[in-house]
Design brief:
The complex is a heterodimer of chains A (about 550) and B (about 675).
Chain A lengths: L2 H32 L5 H10 L9 H24 L15 H12 L9 H4 L2 H31 L9 H27 L8 E5 L5 E5 L3 H10 L20 H25 L3 H28 L3 H6 L11 H14 L14 H12 L10 H20 L5 E2 L2 E2 L2 H27 L1 H4 L6 H16 L14 H30 L16 H31 L2
Antiparallel strand pairs in A: 1-2, 3-4
Chain B lengths: L2 H4 L15 H5 L1 H6 L3 H4 L3 H19 L3 H38 L4 E5 L5 E5 L8 E5 L8 E5 L1 E5 L1 H4 L5 E4 L6 E2 L4 E4 L1 E6 L7 H10 L7 H30 L6 H11 L2 H20 L2 E3 L2 H9 L2 E5 H5 E12 L5 H12 L5 H14 L13 E3 L7 E6 L2 E7 H10 L6 H12 L3 E7 L2 E12 L3 H10 L3 E5 L4 H11 L3 E3 L4 H13 L4 E5 L5 H6 L2 E5 L4 H6 L2 E3 L6 H39 L17 H25 L8 H31 L7
Parallel strand pairs in B: 11-18, 11-20, 18-19, 20-21, 21-22
Antiparallel strand pairs in B: 1-2, 1-3, 3-9, 4-7, 4-9, 5-6, 5-8, 10-22, 12-17, 13-14, 14-15, 15-16, 16-17
Helix pairs in contact in B: 5-6, 5-10, 6-8, 6-11, 6-24, 9-10, 10-23, 10-24, 11-23, 11-24, 12-23, 14-15, 23-24, 23-25, 24-25
The chains are: A mainly alpha (about 550), B alpha+beta (about 675).
Chain lengths: ~550, ~675
């Protein structure tokens, strides 16, 4: 089949599948989150952990639970990675060095999955399956729980209760992520992804040389890696590795899994606030931004500007022949637009514009469509900023979904908006100002700057993908990026949960003709505009010295 | 004639709202004084500009050049222009305050002792509870309530209205204001406000902006602006190492210039002027808002409670139609109706004379013309009035009374007349019957006349999402008829203060913001409960205390204006914020290529304005950034044009003008400035 036609068909199938899943999954998640009943297994978990599932939490308690749970997760994962030599199925790997273990623990608990190690060369099965894969579930569930707390803030009135974090965490894991991951792991298995505990197999290649093939529980980890927008590959090559992503079909499935939950959560949001149109509006913002960037990225890669690429006939460096150029670009846009960070091609080898667009996708704040949960609360924050300015322009003090955006709300929203760019810019600034930061750069000139910009954009926005080239396994980057990941994840979460508490306490102003409608196309344009302008104004200088300078020689 | 024209008479007391360019010059000294860092600290955006200006000055001294000094001067001008905006706004208030202060002369008070003896003391020595005597010619020494006597008072000092008003003890007309003048009679006033806290003192403080506190929305906006400023501060700070890596150096001057261009200086500079001007627009309409919070709340109001009389209808019932009895000619009815009303000085009586003249061509007959006429005045017992002349006994009055009178004279009531009377009552009107001796001549239809244009006004309000509720003491039938005619959304008939209060609470429970007017003491609780409570200046001091605004003209229709002013204030803020942020796009296109074109010549592609040189590009952006503040001062003071419309339409219009405009205008502006700047030696 013609490769263009194949790409078009793939995109049509992708969008069709997302459209089909949107309603049932979105509604199902809403039901799960609001259901009054507890399952038998769930009740057992609550008893073991010692939580009262009926206790509705204040925002401060909810936040403390999130932070405490995440802190314990980091410590546990750190210990597991350090001590893996003493655990079964270590495949003879030593414990991870301390700074790298810290970086990795933070990375997986923050749903970033930045990997400064090489999976098959550093980790055994226990660390992968009991450590990383478990965090793939839990960190995703934490993200969704925080988003749900914010949505409850909008849905509820005159209350200081936002729900129970432990109940949300357990339900999201057991009723949403686990079943979906189970089903799709089997689908991936059927599609050719490996799943075994076979360890290394040494084969003789056609050329006659020996090659070591590492097997492992890959399919089970692959499904949640994409579903939970985690992105940490079992293998170093991530989804470009034929054992993780063997065919064009599994590639398409993985793109679908990456987008599935972030997109469907807008339906859940509409359900929970009792106005589906509000969810559609957010979906429209996500879709228009992601659609535009994806189209541009595909165009940049397919047209492969530049003499070397023109000579080669295609921008194939760093891309797999079995996926082709267009679908590699779609994957790249999906993975950077969702804070997933899985890659099926090497972003560093993209054209200057293509690589730049991957960075743009991340610095938009991971809202189009963003990570599981994080995308929803990110776009809600953007909506509040849009509502604040637009609300004034219609002559009312701003309100969103009937909730007034006053000084306290604006303080929290401003802090949220400030947090991630601040972490990114300060990290980038320090890296470029110090020898420790600059010495890891592989390519000179603007591409080298892009490498560092990409690393901090990826860490601060909890994406996890990397511009290969930068040597990130140094103390500077292991520690620096760990700090960026921590702050980039938990500062926004603090502000979001506090904001949820603030708006839940309010009553609801009824919508009138004088109220700014937040479900119309004009509002969609406005939110998209706010996201683009805020990110644009913040990152244009850095982008100008990186990808843009590279693109305009 | 629209309502807006009917109730905003130009008053000499308050300066007009027009912006005079001369004010820019006269306010310059004030603007310079405001460069004090301790003052500018309160405005984080402009404080950053101030620090930046100081930094560039230092840099320009160390390494002088035409470029360095040009940028430095324009940065200082940016800070001055921002202060200028505030100074101009405050200057207008100060002019108003001066006029007010002139009325607050050093008054002496005649303090009434416990033994009835009077002592003359300065008004400033009065305390709350003191009793003072005021006679014709005295200036009332302080705010208070009349507890004895009745007097006519000239309140033009505060209302601008020259006609005297009656103030009397007890009832709803007992409040007097310090600084007003007694024209006749003698009253005893109990002081209710300590010196320095009187109504006029508060007015002065308000228009001067002395007691101005940031309103909640202003605080929220300031937070957003501050956080944008921090983001840009970080952007500029990290630019240094990025530029160094890229093989180019960035001077302090260039970095500061970039920072000042990016942070939202336009809105930061104009924000407080917008707030002051908003209060000012209210004052121009003779409304005093006791807090900026109330003005903001006015923009959010979704339910308006309006008193029927004076707001929706003209003050009194008017004759609108004559209905002759069977077999009686219309001329005869008109003649009798006019005759019987000539001596009737009530507004209803006068309206009958007017109707007869306009509709039936009857000219007024002077009383003297009808010699020997015996006028029968209206009394509560007879409920009729009329005249005995030339052997005729013409009577006009309430239907029941006239029917009884006719019956006593041996006449009969035709069934058609009784039917007409019932029909008028059912339609919410008041029927008056005219009789000549035993003969019933016809019926006069009196009705509440709904103000012209009010229906359209309510339609506008509905489009703005505001529900109107008419409050009236009438019975439900009458109320419904008027409500339908006026086009209000709902009405509250036979309303008691308790009913009003309950209605307000009910609306507020649904999350709606309620605005109302009131004047009586029994309105006070409802005024306090309402989100926007406008007390009439003619009202009691209790009502004035309870409300958060006072209308000096005592015109209840003004509530609608207040809502519009509140909205206009918020729209101006939002529009200029949008404009300010949208400006940054063009500034990046000017500055980014200028900064890095040496390191990466390819970036010249981004120089879409084709600015002549890096230096002139940066300077042009800085100059544009400063000039746009001055250019927008008139808009900030006047407020963005506001036409009542639905939120969607307002948004699309303002986004188009201030969003898209904000993106495009600076491209043209910076290019034009560059054409001039590039001519300067050492810049091109």
């Amino acid at each position: 089949m013609d490769s263009t036609l194949a790409a078009v068909l793939s995109v049509v199938v992708l969008l069709g599948a997302l459209a089909l899943a949107y309603r049932p999954l979105g509604d199902y998640m809403a039901r799960v989150l609001e259901s009054p009943r507890h399952g038998r297994v769930e009740r057992m978990v609550y008893r073991v952990v010692g939580v009262d599932p009926a206790a509705d939490q204040r925002w401060s308690v909810y936040l403390r639970s999130v932070l405490a749970f995440s802190a314990v997760s980091i410590v546990a994962l750190f210990a597991l990675l350090r001590l893996q030599a003493y655990l079964p199925y270590s495949l003879g790997h030593e414990g991870m060095p301390p700074w790298q273990a810290l970086n990795t623990a933070v990375s997986f608990v923050t749903n970033t999955n930045w990997q400064s190690y090489s999976g098959e060369a550093a980790l055994g099965y226990t660390a992968q399956a009991a450590g990383l894969a478990v965090q793939n579930f839990l960190s995703a569930a934490v993200g969704i729980a925080v988003a749900v707390a914010l949505v409850r803030g909008f849905a509820r009135t005159h209350t200081d209760r936002l729900g129970n974090f432990w109940v949300d965490l357990v339900r999201i894991t057991l009723r949403i992520l686990l079943p979906l991951a189970f089903v799709f792991a089997i689908v991936l298995l059927v599609g050719g992804v490996v799943q075994n505990l076979a360890g290394d197999t040494t084969i003789t290649t056609l050329a006659g040389g020996p090659q070591t093939l590492t097997g492992g529980p890959v399919a089970s980890q692959e499904a949640i890696k994409e579903l939970g927008t985690n992105g940490g590959g079992f293998y170093n090559a991530n989804s470009a590795h034929p054992f993780e992503n063997p065919t064009a079909l599994t590639n398409l499935l993985e793109i679908f899994l990456i987008l599935l939950i972030p997109v469907s959560l807008t339906r859940t949001f509409g359900r929970l606030v009792g106005d589906l149109r509000q969810g559609y509006a957010l979906l429209a913002v996500m879709a228009s931004l992601w659609g535009t960037i994806t189209a541009l990225m595909v165009w940049a890669e397919v047209s492969h500007a530049g003499p070397a690429l023109q000579l080669a006939g295609a921008a194939m460096e760093g891309k797999e022949v079995r996926f082709g150029v267009p679908m590699s670009a779609v994957f790249a846009s999906a993975t950077t637009g969702t804070s997933t960070g899985a890659v099926d091609s090497m972003h560093s080898s993209y054209t200057a514009y293509g690589g730049g667009l991957a960075i743009v996708n991340m610095v938009l704040g991971e809202v189009a469509p963003g990570g599981v949960g994080a995308g929803l609360y990110g776009i809600l924050i953007a909506s509040i900023v849009a509502v604040f300015i637009a609300g004034l322009m219609v002559g009312r003090t701003p309100e969103y979904l009937g909730k007034k955006i006053g000084a306290r709300e604006m303080k929290l929203v401003s802090l949220y908006v400030l947090a991630t760019p601040a972490v990114l810019l300060i990290g980038l600034g320090i890296a470029m100002a110090t020898e420790a930061g600059r010495s890891s750069i592989l390519n000179p000139g603007p591409h080298g700057l892009s490498e560092v910009l990409y690393a901090f954009a990826s860490a601060a926005n909890n994406n996890g993908s990397a511009f290969a080239g930068l040597n990130a396994n140094t103390d500077f980057y292991n520690i620096g990026l760990a700090i960026a990941m921590l702050l980039g994840r938990f500062l926004p979460i603090c502000f979001v949960v506090a904001l949820a508490g603030s708006i839940a306490a309010q009553g609801r102003a009824p919508a009138t003709e004088g109220t700014l409608p937040t479900h119309r196309p004009l509002f969609v344009v406005l939110v998209a505009g706010v996201i683009l302008v805020v990110a644009g104004l913040t990152f244009v200088p850095a982008l100008a010295l990186g990808p843009i300078a590279e693109a305009l020689p | 004639m629209t309502l807006a024209q009917t109730h905003a008479p130009a008053r000499p007391r308050i300066g007009s709202g027009a912006f005079e360019p001369k004010a820019l010059v006269t306010s310059l000294p004030d603007a310079m004084r405001k460069l004090d860092p301790r003052v500018m600290w309160r405005n984080p955006v402009m404080f950053v500009v101030l620090i930046g200006s100081a930094l560039t000055t230092a840099a320009a001294i160390v390494e002088p050049s035409v470029f360095a000094w040009s940028v430095t001067v324009w940065l200082w001008l940016t800070a001055v222009f921002a202060n200028l905006a505030e100074a101009v706004a405050e200057g207008r208030g100060r002019a108003q305050a001066a006029t007010l202060r002139a009325t607050r002369r050093d008054t002496m008070a005649r303090l009434l002792g416990g033994d009835g003896a009077e002592a003359v003391v300065p008004a400033t020595d009065l305390t709350v509870g003191d009793l003072v005597v005021c006679e014709a010619g005295d200036v009332i020494p302080g705010d208070g309530d009349v507890i004895e006597g009745v007097a006519s008072v000239d309140e033009s000092a505060i209302t601008g209205e020259s006609a005297p008003v009656i103030r009397e003890s007890g009832g709803d007309r007992s409040a007097v204001t310090g600084g007003t003048k007694v024209l006749s009679d003698r009253i005893v006033v109990q002081v209710t406000a300590a010196p320095g806290h009187t109504f006029i003192d508060r007015m002065i403080a308000l228009v001067e902006g002395a007691s101005r506190q940031k309103t909640p929305n202003e605080v929220a906006l300031n937070i957003l602006l501050a956080s944008l400023t921090i983001v840009f501060l970080l952007v500029v700070m990290t630019l240094s190492p990025l530029a160094a890596y890229s093989g180019t150096t960035t001077s302090v001057i260039v970095l500061v210039a970039l920072l000042v261009c990016l942070i939202p200086t336009t809105i930061g500079a104009l924000l407080s002027a917008i707030g002051i001007a908003g209060m000012d627009r209210l004052v121009q309409r003779n409304v005093l808002a006791m807090s900026g919070r109330a003005v903001e709340a006015a923009g959010d109001v979704s339910t308006l409670l309006l008193d029927k009389t004076g707001t929706i209808t003209l003050g009194n019932r008017q004759a609108v139609e004559l209905l002759p009895a069977p077999g009686v000619g219309i001329e005869e009815v008109a003649d009798a109706a006019q005759l019987s009303s000539l001596a009737d000085e009530t507004p209803e009586g006068r309206s009958i004379v007017v109707l007869c003249k306009e509709r039936h061509g009857l000219r007024a007959r002077e009383e003297g013309v009808l010699r020997d006429a015996a006028w029968v005045p209206f009394t509560a017992q007879t409920r009729m009035s009329g005249v005995d002349v030339d052997g005729r006994t013409v009577r006009k009055g309430a239907a029941g009374a006239v029917f009884a009178y006719v019956a006593a004279a041996g006449g009969q009531t035709p069934p058609a007349v009784a039917a007409a009377v019932d029909a008028i009552s059912a339609a919410g009107g008041t029927p008056l019957v005219v009789a000549d001796g035993p003969r019933i001549l016809g019926v006069i239809h009196l009705k509440d006349v709904v103000k012209e244009g009010i229906r359209e006004r309510f339609d506008e309000l509905r489009r703005m999402g505001i529900r109107t509720v008419m409050i009236t003491g009438d019975n439900p039938m009458t109320a419904r008829a008027i409500a339908e005619e006026a086009g209000v959304d709902d009405f509250l008939a036979e309303a008691t203060p308790e009913d009003k209060m309950a209605l307000i609470k009910r609306e507020q429970e649904g999350g709606r913001l309620v605005a109302m007017t009131g004047d009586g003491t029994n309105d006070a609780p409802a005024l306090a409960q309402a989100d926007v409570g406008v007390a009439m200046n003619t009202g009691t001091s209790a009502a004035k205390e309870a409300g958060n605004m006072v209308d000096l003209d005592s015109n209840p229709t003004k509530l609608i204006d207040i809502v519009e002013i509140g909205k206009q204030l918020l729209i101006t803020r939002g529009s200029l914020t949008t404009f300010s942020v949208a400006n940054d796009i063009a500034k990046y296109f000017a500055i980014i290529p200028a900064l890095f074109v040496v390191a990466y010549p390819g970036l010249d592609t981004l120089n879409v304005m084709r600015l002549s040189s890096p230096n002139s590009a940066i300077l042009s952006a800085v100059i544009f950034n400063a000039l746009v503040i001055v250019a927008l001062i008139p808009l900030a003071l006047r407020g963005v044009r506001y036409r009542p419309a639905s939120a969607s339409r307002l948004l699309s219009r303002n986004l188009l003008v201030y969003g898209l405009g904000g993106v495009l205008v600076p491209f043209a502006g910076i290019k034009l400035i560059d054409l001039v700047v590039s001519q300067i030696p050492g810049m091109g």
